[in-house]
Fold each of these.
Amino acid sequence: MRIPPRHTQALAVTLLGAATGLTLAILVFVVVFILGKGLPVLSLGFLLDSPRGMGKSGGIFPTLVGSIILPLMAILIALPAGVGTAVYLSEYTRENMATRIIRFGTDCLAAIPSIIFGLFGFIFFVTILKMGWCILAGALTLAIMILPTIIRTSEEAIKAVPTSYREVSYSLGATRWETVLKVVLPNALPGIMTGVMLSIGRCIGETAAVIFTAGASLRLPHSVFDSTRTMAVHFYILAREGISNENAYGTAAVLIIAVLTVNMVSYWMMNRFIARRTK
Amino acid sequence: MNTTVKIANRSLSVFYGAVQALRNISLDVPAHQILGIIGPAGSGKTALLRATNRLNDLNPNCRVEGQILLDGEDIYQPDFDAVRLRKRVGMVFALPVPLPLSLFDNIAYGPRLSGIRTRARLNELTEQSLRAAFLWDEVKDRLHTSALRLSGGQQQRLCLARVLAMQPEVILLDEPCSGLDPISTAKIEEALGALKSEYTIVLVTNNTKQAARVADTTAFLLQGELIEIGPTGKIFTAPEDQRTNDYVSGRFG
């Protein structure tokens, strides 16, 4: 027996709506739960004081610094390399066996658990290159970890730039590089920035890859060769070692607010950028 | 009429993969005239244009045989610079493609690539080209707003102005009015008529009436072959080939 289309339609709307509602509910629950437990701990002192007693009391200032400096450095390393690779693959090479292998390799890299990158960073940067646990080793490891994401999202964004734009640019006497600079990259920028935001989010939340490479020192770092602790690692240690549940939730709340802020600011910047170009 | 030849196609064949789009075409483009190229869809008109400014280079499956001589120089010689060629041979596409920039930046795109940086010179070029494309009066107050907000007809005239600002020698137009209303079409045709004293114009069109209106010389392509070329009046009133006669009288195509 055939179900009348208006019933299947109603059923589809209900199911899709339920899926959306469930997703939203889980999201809201997590945020409200963490903020509910963490916000009471928050104060200016919590943000700006150094931790005392391994974080049992005091603030989280050094981990705040670590959480800003590590993702920032990782992005600064991975962005040029990733976007460069994406431009090279999509604009300068023809689709052949080699590009397919590179693309397959990147996809495989993206699927590797972060702790493997942490282990690699520990063996290669910390031990073989004798960097020791430090910000540089952590940033390099994170950069390798997010490289596949940056390459993939950049490539998709570059492919989405209409071919007709490129043809116009070439027909007006532009070289390939001029076309990349003036037409391809500006129009791919929103997509590239999406990848950057995703990557920053992953870096801020990363523990496994960081703890093996940047260490977990609670002192304020003075150079990239000092060890540091990020908020995510701090939260992990506080909760895992049972040092202080309140401060763990406080750190988590700051972490969530930080990620939300990064996302909102970048959305705002993106919209302004797009608005300026299509004014 | 004694005219010089700007572009000479010699035994030109163009292949896209296994498909041959142009078959052994020899066709002279007279200088300072409008050459109309007519023919049904798939007759190789666009392939001819894209071979003339080497835009085909971007398509790895495309292969070109024969010669195209621009002022007597073979543009497919290995040492002939395709980027410089495209600065001399501008192109307007079938669909207007304004870049997502302001009107001013669209028009300044070509001149800036040629190293023109001074604001005064760019302003001057912008006004000149927009006037020549019969668009200046409509847009002079919003040169710094997005080109995407223009109407289709205005966008296509902007694309024409953008090519003019490059100060090319040849302008290729690939069915420039196929998506436009009659009034916009009339404005483009008016602009072309005024431009031919300075430029050599090749106008591909699937609107035979348009060729009859604006072209000095008309060529008829069919399935990749050049069937006939001659003064426009003759092609439309007394063609030598029966197939030309059938096409211009609307019996097929």
Amino acid sequence: MTRGSNVMRRTILALPLALLLLAKAPNVFGAPLDAPALARHIDEAIDACLRVEKVAPSPRCEDAEFVRRVYLDIVGHIPPAEKAAAFLDSREPNKRAQLIEDLLASNEYGKHQADIWQALLLQRTSDNRFISFDKMTQWLEKAFNDNKPWDQMVRDILTAQGDMDDNGAVTYFLAHLTPDKLTDNATRVFLGVQLQCAQCHNHPFTKWKQDEYWGMAAFFTKVRINGNPRQIARQGGTLVVSENGKGRPLPLPISAKRVPPKFLQGEQPQLASSDAYRPVLAKWMTSPQNPYFSRAMVNRLWAQFFGRGLVNPIDDMHEGNPPSHPQLLADLSAQFTASGFDVKQFIRALCNSEAYQRTSKPNTSNRDAAPELFSRMAVKVLTPEQLYDSLVQVLGAPNPENFRRRQGVAAAAAVRLRNITPRMVFVAFFKGEDNAEPTEYQAGIPQVLRLMNSPQLNNTTMLAPLLKSGKTPEQIIEYLYLATLSRRPTAPEMQRTLALVHKHADEPRQAYGDILWVLLNSSEFTLNH
Amino acid sequence: MTLLNLSRRDWLKLSAAGVSAVSLSGWLQVLASRAAQTPTKHKSCILLWMDGGPSHKDTFDLKPGTKDGGEFKPISTAVPGIQISEHFPKFAQVMNHAAILRGMSTSEGAHPRAKYYLHTGYKEGQGGLNYPSLGSLVSAEIGKPDGSMPNYVSIGARSYGAGFLGIHHAPLLVADPARGVENLKPLVNGSHFDDRLGLLHEMESAFYREYKAEASADHWTTYQRAVTLMQSKEAKAFDLSLEPSSVRQAYGSSRFGDGCLLARRLVEAGVSFVEVTLGGWDTHQNNFERVKQLSQQCDPAMAALVNDLKQRGLLDSTLIVWMGEFGRTPRINQRGAKPGRDHYPRAWSSVLIGGGIKGGQVIGKTDKEGATVVERPISALDFLATICELLGINWKKQNNTPIGRPIRIVDKGATPIAELLG
């Protein structure tokens, strides 16, 4: 359904594209702009397009929408009740920009980015099921928190050597294991292109030929592992990845073409047989001159915060799938490169833009407007990780002993051995389709049944201290709304829920339990609006 | 008019406008009474999805005594002249209800694209659309729109979704058939649960009124479906513990066997489409040991399924499809200590059973190496059109995408296999 909107976008935006090129654009190709200036540039480009389309954007969102949104987008969970209340009550004129700074400085920022990137970089398959992804998650978390420049991060991932315990980034190689899978993932995730069709035949929609695919794959053919990964993992040994080292070459599929290494749509580098190939590929991929690299990351980060890319689907950038705002994408890519691939700086600019801070409520002018006009914020569905962390934020963390018991005797060993956590089990259960749009509701009946009826997700122990705190019913209800929806109840909501509390005056915990159940099962809780 | 006869958007629009005539306190009773009605008899389909691509030469198209013919011996079946692998001895006895299609010939050789193609009849990414899978199409065409049971259940794997048909036709996933659908009982008693839903309904309407978010409508649709299932009597169909252990043994006491038994129970309860996945057929290495072991899981489960359905008078109305995403190379590869066979879409086999087909026949033929179809080739489109035809679905019908693009159920160029249609 979501993919169908491509056609619409192409027709709608054909006109403003031409006009945008005529519009007076500030020169952003030189020195990097600071975040407020880049945010203004984003708004100029988005607003120019809206004017052409005669669509009035939705107004700035209320503080309650903002605080919930920016917490979910930057640190991956809803704010605690106290923080939400403090933000709503603050009269600091600069409080939104300040909150963005605080969240970017929090270590939870890296944790949230690691969740996103682990899912992109490492997919569980039957071939890698014995390889733990933990070290890579830790590696990603630290790299994002250190704000390691993006080009450096990608080079480190692509050229990783050594053993997994010392260098978590080698997990990337071990999770894919074959040159074709590495080529598919690296080109899709880091360059935003879908090259895999060209594995077996010339790409149907682009100029990529089958030889170009295997030219890229050839860069991965000199990597060696210190033996059979499954056997090593079973024996509790350490996997070591090396370039040009000893060991068996990686298997290639029958359809593989044996061609020398060659850059996608680029030259064939002069390589000696003793050269390491991956560093050459990584240098080309992450070079400021590479036409794909900066655009792909800019588009991906844009989609993280806006619910869809400037090119959408995000990792299918080719001539037949043009951006909604070509000049803006070009400018942002140039800026991201000029900043030294500074990810936090880019996120800072996105979050400070008016486009990001719009309410997601439609108005009479934009209720049928195409989503790629960004006339209001997209309503995104919480990812399984965001949902779990937000539930834990409200209900408290589950008891690990209970969790082990529930997994059963046979699984208990596996739980300890592979370090399986309740969070991993929850995420695996709620995970949607791989290519789902962030705005698409993906949970099905089993997931909804678990939210409604599982004792673990309906643990109301958090109510006990609240009931003993001496708070009035109004204060308790307000707290529950702040803790779950980051806002205070409306007058009718307060009236309705108070009536419920009074009706069950002899069983207050049941009444508050009902209110909590309704809040946690609501669309408003499960959506980032 | 009750809640369930309204489309989700109509309903939310009405609620949002404050016109809701639906009394929620009466809602669950309505559902319960609906659940008590006996389902009308209609056609069903059980897709046994052999994930990874089974080796045709080692299952249903053996080439004994030829180069790379493999280790397995052919055995005779209940139908004179038809031979299959020795590791399907029980299924051989019900061959009179089955047709083996040995001329499958398709064009996708990578797992994700081939699975997508064989599930939807369209190439992944074609025209920028997300196409509905066979299960979702069956749900939309012959499923009951307001039944208490889901119309499409997928057992053992996520499978493919509803694409542009929308979440209402998405599969209900059962990860482990022995555990069925978990968390079916509410934590509070009936009327108390009803009160909670009443309050939730108010919140949902208020949120939709302001935000008009599609995800919110889909969220509520899913909640409605889950509550409907909770209240229904048929939900006990998901409980395998109600079967005697001898029955589970007959199906092979494996997870796949449990899946097939659950499929039978669900078809009895009126579910239109059940997909049961058996993974592990991607036998690049150690082909013979693995195919033998997988065949031995399939064999009792398939035979028991056919016999059970027949005994219940459901075999003629239930089409069973055995297939994977492609076959495997006629040549045995030379990699590793225990070699295997690689992906091969050019010539492979599938099996259809029951569903009113003319059984006891083999359709199509490959050359002596199982490398090329020499007689009666069957494309993915021919195959899907045949399944539709057998289920009484007009496969030439066009569905509209949300932006109004007409998309045929099966694309142009399909010819159903006439030999099957009795």
